[in-house]
Design brief:
The chain is mainly beta and 498 residues long. Among the domains are: 164 residues, Immunoglobulin-like (Sandwich); 149 residues, Mannose-Binding Protein A, Chain A (Roll). Helices cover 4% and strands 27% of the residues. The strands form 7 sheets. Strands 1, 2, 3, 4, 5, 6, 7 and 8 form an 8-stranded mixed β-sheet that branches. The protein starts with 19 loop residues before the first strand and ends with a strand. The N terminus is likely disordered.
Length: 498
């Protein structure tokens, strides 16, 4: 072979689409936090220029006691690459437009079960610019082992936070702004930028040009940067080098042989000289990301990776009360009710989606007026007070598996809320429900925690232009019918939570 290939070996295109990860959160508050108006959730994966910040998610919690009644919600986090395994979560509590509480957590994107976060007071001295991020340079503002990625980049600038796209907040792996750990990761000025799909022209070994050896890989403006240094040519192909078979004619002996070959970046095999561009960091880490797309270890069943160590993962899915498996509690039943072995209250069920407390069973079939009296006088002997026959919007909030009639969000416009309508003329075809007996609870279109006959149930909302009729829900098909008030239909009482 006249010409022997001496290759410049390049790194792969750094990332590929990684999809999304759904995390279930239970957000409680320390009693010292006080009342909040709203919660803001932020999530970040990756580090430095390769980091990805998800769109903020906001929940209205005005009037909600997060100490006794934590918020349970799910968020979707886009994975910036197929190698993303961890995310930094920040929950910020706001009152009267001011951030007054915070909760932070580093968690695996493959975490299962419910992730518990506790909001603690955010001292004004720790957040001088009021952006909800703490200045960890001040004593007592942050935990000693807290990930630096949560720290405020500049507590004098409201916009300079680690969860926005600002140059001053792009230190990889959570390194502090202005430190050597941050500065030394900046791309070198002579770094060669290789675009995805770009062709690399390899020199002829007889030309005297120096071979380029890959020594470091970093990111510059979203592209891969390869730092190169000269190495004398020895006329030999390193052991393990691979040439693309489709380019064989370019290196074979013969009249068509070329002095140089064009090899697409995607076709170049990577040869390791024993020193990786990325050095895994698992010092004092039992689990989680090693910084190079790998992992420092996986946690066993019932545990999750939390702040570099495996911790017990509370399990409260489908439970209203009882032990969470980690020495904590999934909640308590109302006075007079009993927590059953399966973690549900005997007489009542709290819907975490609406924060309404429902009679778990039912009160049988009754006319509309009798049903109102049954609930208001608490003839069922339910714990607590404030029981009433639900209005049509409250009753629709029990529907599961029939999107058109679910509340909120369903296209059926019959409802008792602002912008809804109680007149028969407002009822559209979308209120007709779904196929009969195909709901998620044994064919019934309600939550699996409810008991009682799967039939039509009364609401307390009358039909505006037909006084003898009332609105109800038929849980066999999830439809919203108009029912004559003198007939007997199912009754289930409700009160506000907790």
């Amino acid at each position: 072979m006249r010409n022997r290939l001496i290759a410049l070996l390049a790194a792969f295109v750094l990332s590929c689409a990684g999809g999304t990860s759904t995390l279930r959160l239970r957000i409680a508050a320390d009693p010292a936090v006080g009342a909040l108006d709203a919660l803001l959730a932020l999530a970040r994966t990756g580090a430095g220029d390769a980091s990805h910040v998800s769109s903020p998610v906001e929940w209205n919690v005005a009037g909600r006691d997060l100490v006794a009644n934590p918020l349970v919600a799910e968020i979707e986090i886009p994975k910036d690459s197929a190698f993303a395994v961890e995310a930094l979560l920040v929950i910020q509590g706001r009152r009267d437009g001011v951030f007054v509480a915070t909760a932070v957590m580093q968690t695996g994107l493959d975490a299962t079960g419910t992730i518990d976060l506790l909001l603690v007071p955010l001292a004004p001295a720790c957040d001088a610019d009021g952006d909800g991020f703490r200045d960890c340079t001040k004593d007592g503002c942050c935990e000693a082992d807290e990930n630096d990625g949560f720290a405020d980049c500049d507590d004098s600038q409201t916009g300079a936070t680690p969860f926005v796209d600002k140059p001053e907040c792009r230190c990889p792996d959570g390194a502090a702004i202005g430190t050597a750990a941050c500065d030394e990761t900046e791309p070198e000025a002579d770094a060669e930028i290789v675009e995805p799909g770009e062709t690399v022209v390899l020199p002829d070994p007889g030309s005297g040009e120096a071979e380029k050896d890959v020594t470091d890989v970093s990111l510059v403006d979203g592209h891969e940067a390869i730092d190169v240094e000269p190495e004398p040519l020895d006329g030999k192909m390193d052991e393990g080098m691979v040439a693309d078979a489709t380019e064989a004619s370019d290196v074979a002996d013969g009249p068509d042989a070329k002095d140089s070959v064009d090899v697409p970046l995607s076709d170049i095999a990577v040869e390791s000289d024993g020193t990786d561009a990325c050095k895994p960091d698992c010092v004092d880490k039992e689990c989680g990301d090693d910084g190079c797309g790998g992992t420092c270890g996986a946690c066993g069943a019932g545990h999750t990776c939390l702040l570099r160590a495996c911790a017990c993962a509370p399990t409260c899915d489908g439970k209203d009360c009882g032990d969470d498996g980690c020495g904590g509690s999934c909640g308590v039943c109302a006075t007079g009710d009993t927590c059953q072995p399966n973690g549900t209250c005997l007489l009542t069920w709290r819907d975490s989606a609406s924060n309404l407390v429902w009679q778990r069973g039912w009160g049988g079939k009754k006319p509309m007026g009798t049903g109102k009296t049954y609930c208001q006088s608490n003839q069922a002997g339910l714990p607590g007070g404030g029981w009433h026959l639900p209005n049509i919007s409250e009753l629709r909030s029990l529907i599961r598996g029939c999107p058109a009639t679910e509340e909120p969000g369903g296209s059926c416009n019959v409802g008792a809320g602002v912008g809804d309508c109680l007149a028969w003329g407002c009822r559209a075809a979308s209120c007709d429900g779904c196929p009969k007996n195909q709901g998620p609870a044994g064919g019934c279109y309600w939550d699996v925690n409810l008991q009682g006959q799967c039939t039509s149930y009364w609401s307390s909302s009358g039909v505006k232009d037909y006084e003898v009729y009332g609105w109800g829900v038929t849980f066999e098909d999830g439809s919203i019918p108009m029912i004559t008030g003198i007939y007997s239909f199912g009754v289930r009482c409700v009160r506000s939570g907790p």
